[in-house]
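>> received
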Amino acid sequence: MANSELHPDHQQALTWVCDAYLFYLVSLHRRPVYRHQHGDISLNQPALREFIDTYLLDKGWGPERRVVRYTHLLDFKAHVDGINSSFIDWGTVPTLTPRGIRWMNACFSRLGEMVNSYGGWESYVAAVQEVNTDESRL
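>> returned
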């Protein structure tokens, strides 16, 4: 889904959620990577945006419901009250609620389990391409 197709509120909420999760991962691992028991899942904002938004879209959630979900994942109180420095504070970064972190981690845990059930990333990509090819023939 192209970013231009999303409402500005949707884009902003999704960006905040993705940034917050990436900041969280970097604070844990010094790089944006989800550590799964079967291997690391490296992330960037475009991949994270597409993964999360498509996941909810595939569940049948409309744009308004997705925006509500994103705002519930964010910890706005910490963002408003947050002061990062006593010397120079040019702003705070978005943060997720503990429930938001658990939800995001659960999404990537399920992804890792699904990919592992196919025998790895290359096998998963091949299976998805095969399904897409079969669907285009219909």
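>> The two ends are 22 Å apart (CA to CA).
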